[in-house]
Write a structure and sequence with these properties.
The protein is an alpha+beta fold. Helix content is 41%, strand content 16%. The chain is built from 25 helices and 21 strands. The strands form five sheets. Strands 1, 2, 3, 4, 5 and 6 form a six-stranded mixed beta sheet that branches. A five-stranded mixed beta sheet has the order 8-7-11-9-10, covered by helices on one side. Strands 13-15-14-16 form a four-stranded mixed beta sheet, with helices on one face. The longest helix is centred in the first third of the chain and has 23 residues, at 121-143. The protein is elongated. The relative contact order is 0.07. The model is unreliable at 1-37, 146-151, 382-398, 528-558, 626-630 and 711-715 (pLDDT under 50).
Length: 715
């Protein structure tokens, strides 16, 4: 194995760049500022790392920031015995190697000055501009966070707000925590454990969500060593035991290089060792470790299309493990990560995991939002004096969707303990899915999210009136768990008094949903204020008899509309399967006894009659005569709905309001929380049918109303 495997937490450095000696830096820093015509030696390595990413960067502002930081911190010492200036230097170096732009590095050098020295924010603004001042102020607020358990809820709420307004604030904080964790050995064991737990529970998940994998993996290993020393030593010994053996990944990497070379694909094939925690997880999952489990192959190419070309060659020339394939290029992860994941069987039968990505994808995979430069300029470069908006808010185009959601729900969480609990739950989610809306948009949700979560993610508080959903075109209950790639359509009630049920909390996974539901339930301790409260498991309405008083209003039954057919003298009746009414197109068929049954033209019975050779009989509606007792029109409607209390009463009220009389009504037994109602109605005027159907659809809980298409006998 490579040297990196024996110290997997070490940050990536360009070959040939020596490891930084912080004690030497401390001695250099104590010499004070140098002449104005050259860069201080103490930050020469920072400049080198920065120029590797930004060859044309103006280093003058870094020199100026270093001089202020060094003079301000002069005389201050760290608990490790080093001059304090070594800390902001180390933090800045971490960010420079990740590719942070000049403004971030400037703020990093100054991040402790306002907190620990006489330097003021006004001074920082005057000398370095609003942008640097904004970042230093944000980090200063984070530095005031008391990591004691009692203080965590409210202080982390503030941390989240500061992070959300500019993700670079959290980037500096993560680098700051990484350097502190590297030097945590000088503290008492109990304090080490307390800081390590907060790092594990909050900062590492935030690093994951910001996509800064280089920081996240080293933080994981440092926390692992403190909180689980025995397991850490066991993992370290396991890695060391493979260090001297022939690495089977080397042979597979050579085969992959030869395959891609023969295919004419320009690619860089690297062996990427796993860090300690990753090795530990693989050992727990698989038990006995294989030689290829200690690392993965990384294939770097120039263009997106080359990634799929590499995948095709690997799956053609090697035996692929299909279950291991994942496409995070077509569907990037929530933290901006893009890559193709696969696994292939090597020449000797060893299975190797392979990551395929472009060089730019690799940079973002390592550094996340840090690699995207300044989010408030078009080209990612420094905006030296960009003014802060008057309201203090910034529209950050790189801010991940999950962070925007967290900012939204933290404003709704009035209770700090509730905020803390939901934050911990949300950060514990290590995978996110993408579901598609029917309007073409998408929703990012944690794995295991339900339709309840999708409703609140899309509609906010309007989701209180959600009565159901369609998932991939099929009706689904609100408790349905969504899968990556599902298409979801949420069905909302029109009644503003609708509200969630306490049972919705059992299906909610996102903080936004849980906080909104809890807030509504707290504000409505007696339940919904109206009759339309919807819930996934509400009691189902029972069928009422046809002469139920709730359906007795409307016009009394009168004569049926008359139909003329092309068979003179034949008795005529309207088919009960489709209950035609004017101005429906109609057609008749002669049945036993010589009578003619008239159907709507689109009735399924018409197709069946014609299929068995029955001759159609022409039919048309007679104009009503001028007698006062004008005909009533009979029609059968089917209403499909989600069950809830008083649904049947509300439907019959809508029917009566439309001046229709109920001849008969049936309600089928509930199936999967859905109810089917069939009504045979008499209308005073056929022209009122569309309005009646709209009124029935507007009843909360009803998602469809249609004309009956019941089977009919062929005679």
């Amino acid at each position: 194995m490579s040297a990196e495997a024996t110290n997997p937490g070490a940050p990536l450095r360009k070959r040939g760049r020596p490891r930084i000696d912080l004690r030497r830096l401390g001695r250099v820093a104590l010499l004070g500022p140098v002449s104005r015509d050259r860069l201080p030696d103490a930050i020469g390595h920072v400049a080198e790392a920065h120029r590797a990413h930004y060859p044309d960067a103006d280093l003058a502002i870094l020199r100026k920031a270093y001089v202020l930081a060094e003079t301000s911190h002069r005389g201050q010492m760290r608990k490790s015995g080093e001059p304090y200036i070594t800390h902001p230097l180390a933090v800045t170096l971490i960010l420079a190697e990740l590719g942070a732009e000049t403004t971030t590095l400037t703020a990093s050098l100054l991040h402790d000055t306002v907190e620990d020295t006489e330097v003021t924010l006004d001074q920082v603004r005057a000398e370095f501009g609003d942008e640097v001042c904004y970042l230093v102020d944000g980090v200063t607020k984070l530095e005031k966070v008391d990591y004691g358990a009692a203080a965590e809820p409210e202080t982390f709420r503030k941390m989240l707000v500061a992070t959300g307004n500019d993700v670079r604030v959290m980037s500096i904080k993560l680098a700051d925590r990484l350097h502190n964790m590297r030097t945590l050995g000088v503290m008492r064991p109990e304090k080490q454990a307390r800081i390590a737990k907060v790092t594990r529970d909050v900062l590492i998940p935030l690093a994951e969500r910001l996509g800064v994998q280089a920081l996240k993996t080293e933080l994981e290993d440092l926390v692992f060593a403190i909180l689980h020393p025995d397991e850490y030593e066991r993992t370290q010994a396991l890695i060391s035991s493979w260090g001297g053996a022939q690495d089977p990944l080397t042979d597979i990497a050579d085969s992959v290089r030869a395959t891609l070379r023969d295919a004419g694909i320009s690619a860089e094939v690297l062996i990427r060792p796993r860090h300690f925690v990753s090795v530990h997880r693989v050992r727990i999952k698989r038990g006995e470790m294989r030689g290829t489990d200690f690392g993965r192959l990384l294939v770097l190419v120039g263009e997106d299309a080359d990634c799929y070309a590499v995948l095709g060659e690997l799956h053609t020339c090697f035996t692929p493990v299909i279950s291991e394939f994942k496409d995070f290029i077509a569907a990037p992860k929530f933290n901006l990560y893009q890559s193709l994941h696969t696994a292939v069987v090597g020449p000797e039968g060893a299975v190797a995991e392979v990551l395929i990505r472009t060089h730019r994808m690799h940079k973002v995979a390592e550094a996340g939002v840090v690699a995207l430069g300044n989010p408030y300029t078009q080209d990612g470069t420094t905006a030296a004096h960009q003014a802060e908006p008057a309201d203090g808010e910034r529209a950050d185009p790189t801010r991940p969707g999950w962070l925007s959601r967290l900012l939204d729900w933290q404003e709704s969480a009035t209770d700090s303990d509730q905020f803390w609990a939901t934050l911990r739950d949300d950060l514990a989610q290590d995978r996110e899915i993408t579901v598609f809306r029917t309007d073409g948009g998408t929703l990012g949700l944690p794995a295991g999210a339900s339709c309840v979560d999708a409703a609140y993610a899309q509609y906010g508080d309007e989701a209180h009136g959600c009565i159901g959903a369609r998932v991939n075109g099929r009706l689904a209950t609100l408790s349905t768990v969504l899968n990556d790639g599902d298409t979801v359509q949420l069905l909302l009630a029109q009644d503003a008094s609708s509200g969630p049920s306490p049972e919705w909390l059992d299906h909610a996974r996102t903080p936004a949903a849980r906080i909104a539901i809890s807030a509504w339930l707290d504000a409505h301790p007696d339940g919904a204020q109206g009759p339309h409260k919807s819930r996934p498991d509400a009691p189902r309405p029972q069928a009422q008899p046809a002469d139920d008083p709730s359906g007795s209003r409307g016009r009394p039954a009168g004569r049926a509309p008359t139909v003329a057919v092309d068979t003179p003298g034949a008795p005529v009746r309207l088919a009960g399967c489709c209950t035609p009414v004017p101005p429906d197109g109609i057609v008749g068929f002669t049945v036993r006894g010589g009578s003619v049954t008239v159907h709507r033209e689109e009735c399924p019975a018409v197709a069946r009659m014609r299929a068995i050779g029955r001759a159609a009989v022409g039919a048309h509606w007679n104009a009503p005569d001028d007698r006062s007792d004008t005909p009533d029109y009979r029609v059968t409607l089917v209403a499909e709905s989600f069950g809830r209390p008083r649904l049947l009463a509300d439907l019959t009220e809508a029917i009566a309001t439309a001046e229709a009389a109920i001849v008969s009504a049936t309600v089928e037994p509930p199936s999967e929380q859905r109810v089917r109602h069939t009504y045979t109605l008499q209308l005073p005027d056929a022209a009122g049918l569309p309005g009646l159907m709209r009124a029935m659809r507007d009843v909360p809980g009803v998602y469809d109303v249609s004309r009956a298409q019941q089977p009919a006998a062929t005679g």
